[in-house]
Write a structure and sequence with these properties.
The chain has 220 residues and is α/β, with parallel strands linked by helices. It is 30% helix and 26% strand. A hairpin with a 4-residue loop joins strand 7 and strand 8. The chain is globular. The termini are far apart.
């Protein structure tokens, strides 16, 4: 399939997400159009990249459905200049979108070496390798060297909110994370850090993510 065809299909998906009310922020829509999902999947899946469903990526993982990425970015309310951490790089797509929205650098932690390399290749092809820093390691521990963060987005389901991530949030900062069972269903939580260090939690309903593996997540 020619890139012009892929782009046309992707533009229709973005318009549909906007029509459904999933994509509300014009800046997020602009980022979606600038960074089509087909740039972040293997060639054999390019013709499926516009579908609003998860797709396989290496190491038995998945790239999230476009509507799910849009929902998390809408909740994050990213603004230029924010310090952002992502836990679970996967394909690199979400991190690139975040870098576009903050107009700066994003740090993202990935535990699977194969995905570290996959994401780096995708980010280089998309022109974001200088703005998105893929860190190999246990994302449940966060990334202390660049803390504290205005926003932390976790793209895998945890049994509970990892304490290091709360500690690495700025007062008033926000953590978006799925929390619940190992397989299938979790609740998408928005945790806002109060000035005293406690968190206020808003529940945005059921989601399905791969498990968050690590010291402060699920055990392998």
């Amino acid at each position: 399939m020619e890139e012009s065809e892929l782009r046309g299909l992707w533009e229709r998906t973005v318009e549909q997400l906007e029509a459904e009310g999933t994509l509300k922020n014009p800046r997020i829509k602009e980022a979606f159009l600038k960074l089509p999902r087909y740039l972040f999947v293997e060639g054999r899946y390019w013709s499926y990249a516009h579908l609003d469903e998860p797709l396989p990526i290496p190491a038995g993982q998945t790239i999230s459905a476009p509507h799910m990425v849009a929902i998390m970015l809408e909740l994050a309310e990213l603004k230029p200049g924010m310090d952002v951490l992502e836990v679970g790089t996967g394909s690199g797509w979400n991190a690139a979108l975040m870098a576009e929205l903050v107009k700066g650098e994003v740090y993202t932690v990935e535990r699977i070496p194969e995905l570290v390399e996959f994401a780096r290749r995708n980010l280089e092809r998309a022109g974001y390798s200088d703005r998105v820093h893929v860190i190999p390691g246990d994302g449940t521990k966060g990334f202390p060297p660049k803390a504290p963060y205005d926003r932390i987005i976790v793209t895998a389901g945890a049994p509970e909110i990892p304490k290091p991530l709360v500690e690495q949030l700025k007062p008033g900062g926000k953590l978006i994370i799925p929390v619940g069972s190992y397989h299938l269903w979790q609740d998408l939580l928005e945790a806002i850090k109060r000035p005293d260090g406690s968190i206020k939690i808003k529940n945005h309903g059921g989601v399905a993510f791969v498990p968050l593996i690590g010291e402060y997540g699920w055990k392998e």
